[in-house]
Structures are given as structure tokens and as C-alpha cells.
Amino acid sequence: MERTSTANDLTERLRRRLESERREIEELTASELERLAENSRRVARNALSTIERDTEEAAGRMRELLAKAWQRPLIVGLSLWLGFFGGSWATMRWLSMSIQNRIETRAELGRDIEDARRTLAQLEEDTWGLVYREIEGERFVVVPDEVLADPPWWKVDGDLPALKLLRE
User: Fold this and answer.
1) Under 8 Å CB-to-CB from 106, ≥6 apart: which residues?
2) pLDDT score of 167 more than 70
3) Could you give the residue ranges of the DSSP H alpha helices within the chain?
4) What is the pTM for the complete model shown?
5) Statement: residue 168 has pLDDT above 60
6) For residue 141, with 0-12 CB atoms within 10 Å meaning exposed, 13-18 middle and 19 or more buried, which class applies?
7) Calpha distance 130→162 (Å, rounded)
8) CA 36 → CA 12, 42, 43, distances in Å?
9) d(Cα 138, Cα 132) in Å, to the nearest integer?
10) Helix pair angle (71-126, 7-69), 10° resolution
11) Is 140:154 a contact under the CB 8 Å cutoff?
12) What are the tens digits of pLDDT across the range 55-109?
């Protein structure tokens, strides 16, 4: 018994064949999509791990840079501080020593002036207030008004009584 194909049989066979091919294409496509997805995941994981590794390396370099970056301003700041502090300290020491020396010098000068005043008072007392003057080449001894009993023969510097001395 041989069978003859009818249009329905042919349609049915075509439909089954198309369905089979469609399933095969779908399976192949699904398989390829699955392989593509797995490859994409692997590439993404590799890219992600590369990005993470590069980011860690960059962060490590940045940490090193930051660790070194604060040292320079610290050293410069400390140097400036020491310079200002040392300079100010030295200046203040110099100024205080200068002031101290001037105070001591002034005290010494005050003592010297007081000694000179005492010496001058002693000289005036010892010389009875006599003063020597030279006017136009002539020498005079100027005496206080109350010392001479008789009026003198000479007057100098206005109205001061004087004795004229002879040259030798």
C-alpha cells in the first residue's frame, strides 16, 4: 500500500519540518545567545577586575602621594617657624643685652657726673670761687664780689672784679 500524498499531508510535513527547523534555529540561537552571554559575562568580569585592580593601584599611588604631600608643607612650616622663632629670640636677646648695657652705662655716667660735681664743689671750695680768664691775650683772676675788701683795679665779663696777672 502505497500511500499518496495529499495537499494536507504535504502541508503537514512542511509545517512539521518548519517547526523542527524553527526549534533547531531557536535552540541554536539560544545556545549562541547563551554562549554570547557567558562570553559577555566573562569579558565584563575581566573588565571589572581590571578596573578594580587599576583603581586600587591608582588609589595606592594617590595614598603614597598624599603621604609625601603633607611632609613638604610640614617641613617648610617647621623651618619657617624655627626661623621666625630663632630670629625673634636672637633679636630679643640682642635688644635686652643692648638695653642692659645702656642702663649700666647710664648708671656709670650718672656716678661719674656725681663724682665730677663733688670734685667741682671741692675745687670751688678749695679755690674760694676764683676763676681764671684770658681776654685778648691778657690773663685775669676773677674773684667773687665778697672776697675783695678794696675795690679792684679791673672789671671783666661785664662787672666781675678781677686781678690782672703779669706774664712771665
Assistant:
1) none
2) no
3) 7-69, 71-126
4) 0.41
5) no
6) middle
7) 9
8) 35, 10, 10
9) 11
10) 20
11) yes
12) 999 999 998 888 888 888 888 899 999 999 999 999 999 999 999 999 999 999 9
